[in-house]
Write a structure and sequence with these properties.
Length: 300
């Protein structure tokens, strides 16, 4: 088991979750242009004239019309942000490579996990962003939602890409970066964060992963995916602060496999008694057919 050397103490998070204190990447590797073209950037329309295009959070496509991100990314001071004030970008490793309209989509709606409570941190921190029209399969690809849970014996290295800031004074990076990680036991995250003063009770619907190199999150990395093979296994909601790279430190993700029933209902309109979802929307049956067609098309 990994032993974590704690050389600094970060300030306690507030009771309400804020994107300004969210997870980020420093110390990563620059991504190639088409290396992670399932990645999306949630962008504030009022800031798209900036180099980083108003990047707020990361996410990953699970259909050509749906991206998975962190629910806390979609809140400011416990209030849901307005979908029409944001857009999604995908299909390039550089945020400023947005001249072609096929890389930009308007947002139709957000669907927050029904058991996520903004004022109560961490649990069920996952959400779906739906676009008003699908991305082109020529420009992007989609990730698989896992059909089996990942274990700590998983042999391969996982990846987490993101446009988070590369230093504490920046808001984001226009260049996509990534880190490599291995999944570990949840108690490792509980021990590490509790020692730093950030109390977290790790649940079965959370996933702990340790970067292979000294790296940490920074502004704009909330919602980044943990990708193992072609499966989207986790959605980032907690990492170390962006001021210290003293040691490899674990990141905490929402475990996607634990939310498959809710995703089936939200994205595909498939009823499942175990989902507990309360966000089913009218017309989702047609959406399910449309989304399935998109997946088949993207694989052709």
């Amino acid at each position: 088991m990994n032993k974590f050397v704690i050389l600094c103490v970060i300030a306690l998070y507030g009771a309400s979750y804020s994107v300004e204190a969210a997870s980020r990447i420093i110390g990563g590797t620059a991504a190639n242009e088409n290396q992670f073209n399932y990645m999306v950037s949630l962008q504030n329309r009022s800031e798209v004239d900036q180099l980083t295009r108003g990047h707020r959070c990361g996410g990953a496509l699970i259909t050509l019309s749906h991206a998975l991100t962190a629910a806390s990314c979609l809140h400011n001071n416990n209030q849901l942000i307005v979908a029409s004030q944001f857009r999604l970008f995908a299909g390039s490793s550089r945020l400023n490579n947005d001249d072609n309209s096929y890389r930009i989509r308007n947002i139709a709606n957000f669907t927050i996990h029904p058991q996520f409570v903004p004022s109560q941190r961490f649990n069920n921190d996952i959400a779906v962003i739906a676009t008003d029209s699908p991305f082109s399969s020529i420009a992007v690809r989609v990730l698989r939602v896992p059909t089996a849970d990942i274990s700590i014996t998983y042999p391969a290295v996982c990846h987490t890409p993101g446009w988070g800031a590369q230093n504490a004074s920046a808001s984001a990076s226009y260049q996509l970066m990534y880190i490599q990680s291995r999944v570990t036991v949840n108690t490792a995250c509980a021990t590490a964060y509790n020692a730093m003063g950030t109390t977290i009770a790790m649940q079965a619907n959370m996933l702990c992963a340790v970067p292979l190199t000294n790296s940490t999150g920074c502004h704009g990395d909330l919602g980044n995916p943990l990708v193992c093979g072609d499966d989207l296994q986790g959605v980032l909601f907690l990492s170390k602060d962006c001021t210290s790279l003293s040691a490899a430190f674990p990141d905490v993700y929402s475990r996607v496999f634990s939310h498959v029933a809710w995703l089936n209902q939200t994205v595909y309109g498939l009823n499942n008694e175990t989902s507990g979802a309360s966000t089913y929307q009218a017309g989702a049956g047609l959406l399910a057919i449309f989304a399935l067609v998109q997946i088949v098309t993207s694989m052709s």
